[in-house]
Design a protein that fits this description.
Organism (chain B): Candidatus Andersenbacteria bacterium CG10_big_fil_rev_8_21_14_0_10_54_11
Strand content of chain B: under 5%
Number of domains of chain B: 1
Structural class of chain B: mainly alpha
InterPro entries (chain B): ABC-2_transporter-like (IPR010390)
Keywords (chain B): Membrane, Transmembrane, Transmembrane helix
Strand content of chain A: under 5%
Shape of chain A: globular
Number of helices of chain A: 12
Radius of gyration of chain B: 20 Å
Oligomer: heterodimer
Transmembrane segments (chain B): 26-44, 56-74, 114-132, 144-173, 193-217, 237-255
Order of helices and strands of chain A: HHHHHHHHHHHH
Protein name (chain B): ABC transporter permease
Helix content of chain B: over 70%
Number of helices of chain B: 12
Chain lengths: 256, 267
């Protein structure tokens, strides 16, 4: 089903090519903004909380890849849940022969976000070469493993919050919640004071989405953060599923 | 005039009652809207603490605390609603009402802002008064506060007009939302939220400093802190007023031309 949905998405995007290209250009512009910002920062100082310019660029590169991937796979779909529930269209999701949560989150592949992934890969490659950072194969594999765990945590946090729509009739804040979660991904968490840093690492563990993988690539990874990432990903996924199932029981159709 | 005031106050009352119903949503948005300035604060505070030159850490802290309030006061999102109403034809309902279409968007904007500021302003005032020694002393001078409030009012008008100018383009363009997304990028850089103008290289200040975005967020903060970047306080006021004049002419010119060619779809 996912393959068929991806194929349909590609066909749809290619029907509106100008829009697709405008989206890619926009993502490239965002990348240029980040590079400009890093340039200004390192025009003033040599280090940002112990991170050098090329290391910060690696982090930004990973953030583009991960945010792009999440955008392609599920973010946009989950954001549409409040509207689906309000319009009564969520009923059709419940009738599909696949788990409703999976269908809701992955029903459409938003390939217009793929520009971020490409830009991120190019930037990460450039930063690694320019900064003569040479992560070995184990470091790359560890980074990929933590990214997978981080994406699972992010997905779970979105699902947990989106489930609120089964209890309250308006949840426009879901977009705001996504901003709240995604904005800190582009900076080294070392710049934050202790309380927010600890909160974003252990309580709402979005540190594992970009920051910890960047630590893995730049040789800063604390070894026990890898099993912790996997454990937290499993825990949050379980919680998200439990919360979703409870929420579904509260759902009452808005359709006539 | 009395009629206009009565109309707008009645619309505000209606919108206020709607916002009250969804007050939790509005307050949660407030948290999300403060995220970018708070992250920028963390970045630039670290930079200023590590750098012997450039703005002091205290000024950076003051700047970002102030721009959270400026951002909440000047933000405008209703241009997107207007674009949607133009595209799907819903705007005809408002065109038939006995007051200008803009009043409804203005009332929605003012009411939601009031709800957010009701929570944000007391918290900021408590922080600014209890921790006064951590902030730039200039912000406690009464005359600066007067200048700041005047500049803030002008900034809110610029923001509203810029936002609606792009919304008006929906008379000609189907995908006006793509333009809005580009505007967000320019806004993030041009307002001084991502990078304060005080840190930017002179060439960037010159290029970005004349766009309207600086006069929506950075200018009121520069005036309150008495730290205008490559300009003076009177010049900032002159630029704000000039932008309002330009945007008013463009907005009403486009609106009139747009209405003349408007064909309502599906009605």
């Amino acid at each position: 089903m996912w393959r068929a949905s991806t194929r349909a998405s590609i066909i749809r995007e290619m029907e509106f090519r100008a829009n697709f290209i405008a989206g890619l250009t926009r993502q490239l512009l965002w990348l240029l903004v980040f590079i400009f910002m890093v340039d200004v920062i390192f025009g003033t100082t040599e280090q940002l909380a112990g991170w050098h310019q090329s290391e910060v660029l690696v982090l930004i590169g990973i953030s583009r890849i991960v945010e792009g991937l999440m955008g392609v796979l599920f973010v946009q779909n989950i954001m549409e849940l409040p509207n689906l529930v309000r319009d009564g269209k969520f009923d059709f999701h419940l009738l599909k022969p696949v788990p409703a949560q999976l269908y809701t989150a992955f029903r459409r592949t938003n390939i217009d976000n793929f520009g971020n992934v490409i830009a991120g890969v190019l930037l990460t490659g450039y930063a690694l070469i320019a900064g003569t950072i040479t992560p070995g194969l184990p470091a790359i594999l560890l980074a990929l493993l933590v990214i997978a765990a981080g994406i699972t945590i992010y997905y779970s946090l979105l699902i947990i919050t989106a489930t609120l729509v089964f209890y309250i009739d308006r949840l426009e804040f879901l977009w705001g919640f996504n901003i709240l979660l995604s904005e800190p991904l582009t900076v080294p968490f070392d710049i934050f004071p202790r309380l927010p840093r600890v909160t974003l690492t252990y309580l709402i563990p979005i540190a594992f989405v970009v920051f910890v993988p960047a630590q893995a690539l730049t040789g800063r990874l604390v070894w026990w953060h890898t099993p912790l990432a996997l454990g937290l990903a499993a825990l949050f996924l379980l919680i998200a599923n439990a919360v979703w199932r409870t929420g579904i029981r509260k759902y009452s159709s808005a359709s006539s | 005039m009395t009629l206009l005031v009565r109309q707008i106050s009645r619309l505000c009352a209606l919108e206020w009652s709607r916002i009250l119903q969804y007050r939790a949503d509005a307050i949660l948005w407030l948290t999300a809207e403060s995220t970018i300035p708070l992250i920028s604060l963390a970045i630039w505070h670290t930079v200023s603490a590590a750098s012997p030159t450039g703005p002091a850490a205290r000024d950076v802290l003051t700047y970002f605390v102030v721009i959270i309030i400026i951002g909440l006061t000047t933000e405008s999102w209703n241009g997107a609603f207007m674009a949607r109403d133009i595209l799907n034809g819903d705007i005809v309902k408002d065109l038939m009402k006995p007051f200008p279409v803009f009043w409804r968007y203005l009332a929605d904007n003012l009411s939601e802002k009031a709800m957010k500021l009701l929570f944000a302003v007391p918290v900021t005032l408590i922080v600014l008064t209890t921790l006064a020694d951590r902030f730039t002393p200039a912000i406690y001078e009464p005359i600066r506060l007067v200048y700041f409030l005047a500049s803030l009012a002008l900034a809110a008008v610029i923001s509203f007009l810029t936002d609606h100018l792009i919304g008006t383009l929906a008379f000609w363009l189907e995908d006006v939302f793509q333009i809005r997304r580009y505007k967000v990028i320019l806004e993030q850089v041009g307002t001084g939220v991502l990078i304060p103008f005080a840190f930017m290289p002179p060439l960037a200040v010159m290029l970005l400093g004349f766009l309207p975005f600086r006069f929506i967020i950075s200018a009121p903060a520069e005036i309150l802190l008495n730290q205008p970047v490559q300009t003076t306080v009177p010049q900032l006021f002159i630029f704000q007023s000039a932008w309002i004049a330009v945007l008013l002419v463009m907005e009403f010119g486009l609106w009139r031309r747009g209405l003349k060619r408007y064909v309502v779809p599906g009605q």
